[in-house]
């Protein structure tokens, strides 16, 4: 998961006066799938940056990351990201503009080129159209796929697809 600390093209700066030192703040976060408690009272305060979670299978890592990525709403508790409340629609949009998430299994459009695929995510994040091409090219460069920018996704290796996934998360 990437929580941006500085403005990138097309992003909104984190409101420092509202976040304090914390880009991520969870209080008593719980989530259940039926009777199975995947998250039980998680409290977390973390700064901005790139981070992940380690733990055994079934520990709730994916559920927690999905909640932090605003893909899954917790059953209970509160989450604040960059000082914003994801339960507020306008603030949720602002969070998603600055958040990158690469799930274990991510789907892609096989006939898109690498550039088109990452460009699509930049537009989903409501990046200003005039900044998209530069931001996409930079993301592709950062993952070392400049020579594959015009290659169709369906012809990439598994490792290259993971790097494209990282690029879409950081754009």
What does this protein structure show overall?
With 171 residues, this protein is of the alpha+beta class. Helix content is 35%, strand content 19%. The protein is globular. A hairpin with a 2-residue loop joins strand 2 and strand 3 (36-46). Helix 4 crosses helix 5 (129-142) and helix 4 packs parallel to helix 6. The longest helix has 14 residues, at 129-142. The strands form two sheets. A three-stranded antiparallel beta sheet has the order 4-1-6. A three-stranded antiparallel beta sheet has the order 3-2-5, covered by helices on one side. It folds into two domains: 2-100, P-loop containing nucleotide triphosphate hydrolases (Rossmann fold, 3-Layer(aba) Sandwich); 114-170.
Helical content, roughly? 25-40%
Order of helices and strands: EHEEEHEHEHHH
Estimate nothing, just give the exact number of structural domains: 2
CATH class of the largest domain reads: Alpha Beta
- Give the DSSP E fraction (strand runs of 2 or more residues): 15-25%
Strand order of the largest sheet: 4-1-6
Which structural category do the helix and sheet elements fall into?
alpha+beta
Distance between the termini: 12 Å
Radius of gyration: 17 Å
Q: Calculate the mean pLDDT score and round it.
A: 86
Count of helices?
6
Q: Which CATH-level-2 architecture of the largest domain?
A: 3-Layer(aba) Sandwich
- Main sheet characteristics: 3 strands, antiparallel
**DSSP, total strands:** 6
Q: Low-confidence parts lasting 5 or more residues at pLDDT below 50?
A: 2-21
CATH superfamily (homologous) name of the largest domain: P-loop containing nucleotide triphosphate hydrolases
